[in-house]
Design goal:
Length: about 270
């Protein structure tokens, strides 16, 4: 997948990875780039800097996703590359249990981290199949492959996003539809900023914090090779093998890692670790 000459839509494009992708795709001479986010002012600034299209959109509803796609295609033409990048994350606080987050947080994360991907595919796939080509890039996170200590909602929804992307690639990979998922650990974005001392952020940053530009570079390389799995933090590949090779050992190791992040957690009972 070469971005040159392609029409691209990026959700969550006002800052962070989304903005970096827009800037990188612009340098790769994309034919047209649309960036959308909840913050219309910031999106407009990004769009101006890349001579693209920018407008506010709420991808937590199917109507919002469909409107973003319709506006992009009306202005720029059929979308060749759909980047479902918008995401939300919270943490397990204040209770720090795997079920302490509210129903509202679960619902919002499910809609943004999972269903926004589904809705985009639902809207775009018929046209792409008719044309015989199209590409989906989903920002999934290493949490979807491993786990995000201290954020059960994020971990669960990102696992679901991974499952959907796999289904998309399996079902339509021989029909001209390309699929890639980008799965970084910690990236210096608004999701990470201000939380670097919290348990989830400390866990994610164990192998370093990448810049959004570094993630965008990894995406360009992954798209050129049409790789399903794009890993800006290469060590994630080793962790996947450890997890699949010995699940019980991996779980015990993750418990020890969590304990190191939450040494004063009254819920933790190290003496019961076996």
């Amino acid at each position: 997948m070469r971005v040159e000459g392609k029409v691209v839509l990026i959700t969550g494009g006002a800052r962070g990875i989304g903005r970096a992708l827009a800037e990188r795709f612009h340098r790769q001479r994309a034919a047209g780039i649309a960036v959308v986010d909840l913050d219309g002012a910031d999106v407009a600034q990004v769009a101006t800097s890349i001579d693209g299209l920018g407008f506010a959109a709420d991808v937590s509803s199917e109507a919002g996703v469909r409107q973003a796609i319709a506006t992009t295609e009306e202005r720029l033409g059929p979308i060749d590359l759909m980047c479902s990048n918008a995401g939300v994350a919270f943490s397990d606080q204040p209770g720090w249990t795997a079920a302490s987050q509210s129903d509202g947080q679960w619902d919002l994360a499910w809609r943004v981290n999972v269903m926004a991907h589904v809705w985009a595919v639902r809207a775009l796939l018929p046209g792409m199949l008719e044309r015989g080509s199209g590409y989906f890039l989903h920002t999934v996170s290493a949490a979807g492959l491993l786990n995000q200590i201290g954020d059960a909602v994020y971990s669960t929804t990102k696992h679901a996003a991974l499952g959907f992307a796999e289904s998309l690639a399996i079902t339509h990979g021989e029909q001209g539809i390309g699929v890639s998922i980008v799965c970084p650990q910690a990236v210096d974005t608004s999701l990470y900023a201000g939380q670097e001392h919290d348990g989830p952020a400390k866990a994610a940053s164990a192998d370093g914090v990448l810049t959004p530009a570094a993630v965008a570079d990894a995406v360009i390389e992954g798209l050129a090779d049409e790789r399903f799995l794009i890993l800006p933090h290469p060590r994630v590949a080793d962790y996947i093998q450890r997890k699949s090779g010995d699940y019980e050992r991996w779980l015990k190791g993750m418990r020890r890692f969590r304990r190191s992040l939450f040494p004063d957690d009254s819920i933790m009972q190290p003496g019961r670790e076996r």
